[in-house]
UniProtKB/TrEMBL annotation:
GO terms for molecular function: hydrolase activity. This is HAD family hydrolase. The lineage of its organism: Bacteria, Bacillati, Actinomycetota, Actinomycetes, Kitasatosporales. It holds the Pfam family HAD. Keywords: Hydrolase, Membrane, Transmembrane, Transmembrane helix. Belongs to the HAD-like hydrolase superfamily. SerB family.
């Protein structure tokens, strides 16, 4: 306080108090700053909330159901199959042009049109009539290598593999002939496939279907029937599709995914807070949600397809 010697005692006292207050304030500020810094350095930041692991490893009452056309594979399996049959002289150029137009429309629109798909199935049934089932299975193996293998979406394939790695079964669910669907499932290392069942007598195709094509609500009924046969809990299962036609199947499970979705499915998925994946352009959006199960009408054809496949497996 020597520097304050020129002040009167009263003024010296007031000034000293001010200096003391300033020093105390500065010290308090410095100390507070130091404590805050030490707290930031030693305090462990809270861990971010993690999404529950999915698929759940070892959950044998869960399974995954994948639509095929434009979900697992670019384009429609039935059209690729038609190309392979034409190459093997199963039908003429006029019918090939019809297949080509249907495939071009499908790829441009990116959605399933019931009239186009029904027309293609009718054409395919007339073409295979009188041929042996074993012959078509053998040809299906060749057609997969020629036209389908290079059209598998890697992103969707990885999703299927995640379920397999978790110890779960993975099924294709498609309107394509069940024999072709089974070839694709086996080549991808999946459990099996639900598909449209064409009638055969003594191993020869009759040109008729067993029930109806596995399309729309029929897929949901096939999944429901298979889940009952396999003792699956659908609330723990997942389903994947690109088409709004498969909303009944997607609504049936606890974990629905919209993959490469058409416009109607994209809107519905956002409304329902379903997960979205788009592998066509590299965009990927994820939304987590558990939808309420939606009731669907009973479709004999879908149930028949599921039961027929289950009996074959047994």
């Amino acid at each position: 306080m020597a520097a304050l010697g020129w002040l009167t005692p009263r003024r010296r006292s007031a000034t000293a108090r001010s200096v003391l207050a300033g020093e105390a304030s500065a010290e308090a500020a410095r100390k507070s700053s130091q404590e805050a810094q030490e707290t930031q350095e030693t305090e462990v930041p809270p861990s971010p909330v993690k999404e529950a692991e999915f698929p759940v490893h070892g959950d044998d009452r869960a399974a995954a159901f994948f639509d095929l056309d434009n979900t697992v594979m670019q384009g429609a399996a039935l059209f690729h199959f038609g190309r392979g049959l034409y190459k093997r002289k199963f039908f003429d150029t006029r019918e090939l042009a019809k297949f080509a137009w249907q495939q071009a429309w499908f790829r441009l629109a990116g959605v399933e049109d019931p009239e186009h798909m029904q027309d293609a199935r009718d054409s395919a049934l007339s073409i295979v009539k009188g041929h042996r089932v074993s012959e078509l299975k053998s040809i299906g193996e060749e057609i997969y290598d020629e036209y389908m293998a290079e059209r598998i979406w890697p992103g969707t394939r990885a999703l299927a593999q995640a379920h397999l790695d978790a110890g779960q079964k993975v099924w294709l669910v498609t309107a394509a002939p069940v024999e072709i669907a089974q070839v694709i499932a086996r080549r991808l290392g999946l459990t099996g496939a639900l598909g449209t069942v064409a009638e055969s007598v003594a191993g020869v195709y009759t040109g008729r279907l067993v029930g109806e094509p596995l399309h729309g609500p029929a897929k949901a009924e096939a999944v429901r029937a298979l889940a009952a046969a396999e003792d699956l809990d659908l609330s723990r299962c997942a389903a994947y599709s690109d088409s709004h036609n498969d909303i009944p199947m997607l609504s049936l499970v606890g974990h629905p995914y919209a993959i490469n979705p058409d416009a109607k499915l994209r809107r519905h998925a956002r409304q329902m807070d379903w997960r979205l994946r788009d592998y066509r352009t590299g965009r990927k959006a994820a939304k987590v949600g558990i939808p309420a199960a939606a009731g669907v009408g009973a479709v004999a054809g879908g149930t028949a397809a599921a039961i027929a496949l289950h009996r074959r497996r047994r």
